[in-house]
């Protein structure tokens, strides 16, 4: 495992322990929750009396978050070992190709969610002369999508730690 | 088990303080939205227990049995942060006052800490 590595610096040893992996999964859930509640906060704020403007959160604001969450679901429900399965004979015909297609769909959904949230913020809130507390609803949308993406990255990385650990466990 | 009676007394004391804080945060301000925190923290350990039953650690052929464990941990992390984020949300949108937010967060953390440390202290020895 150490002979075919790509970079000159080896991976630190704590990165492969089971505890780091568990903590990473917990952290991913925490970040997803934080992003989700940022957006819920924006939409509750939109209907609360603090929001003095006539601008409200509508379904347009919900679309990026829905795309991001769907993308996260798609990316993280793929079996990671199938992504490089073409070299094995037991794995049927074109499994890796199918897995990569679905993975591409997931990444496209997530990137589309983030880009869409920026679009909504710019077109709906920034181009007009709104007060800062109104612009907050757009900013919270971007923050929520960014946190969902960060959570997905953490979950992906910590699930890829699994391989070496389970390998050691099974031997 | 060496940590016996004293642990139980201390844990129940902390649990009572936690419930007292949450109920006071609701009753002092005549606004019972903060009681959701109790429900969140009581539900929070459940996904790990359920996922622990779904996953079979002895299963070497089906290598993805840890997916259930990961899902349980993910939902637990979600619920724990939800217990903090929900009062902050309610206070930010002026549905509850800020003192109620502080009291319910502290009370909720005490309740969750009691549940976690109870299950840590009195975990059954699993050597067979």
Automatic annotation (TrEMBL), chain A:
This is Vacuolar protein sorting-associated protein 68. It is a multi-pass membrane protein. It comes from Capronia epimyces CBS 606.96. The keyword Lipid biosynthesis does not apply. Belongs to the UPF0220 family. It holds the Pfam family UPF0220. Keywords: Membrane, Transmembrane, Transmembrane helix. It is found in: Membrane. Its main location: membrane. The chain crosses the membrane at residues 23-42, 54-75, 102-123, 135-157. It comes from the Eukaryota. GO terms for cellular component: fungal-type vacuole membrane; Vps55/Vps68 complex. The keyword Membrane applies. GO terms for biological process: late endosome to vacuole transport via multivesicular body sorting pathway.
TrEMBL record, chain B:
Belongs to the OB-RGRP/VPS55 family. The chain crosses the membrane at residues 7-26, 32-50, 71-90, 96-118. InterPro entries: Vps55/LEPROT (IPR007262). It comes from Capronia epimyces CBS 606.96. It holds the Pfam family Vps55. This is Vacuolar protein sorting 55. Signal peptide: none annotated. It is a multi-pass membrane protein. It comes from the Eukaryota.
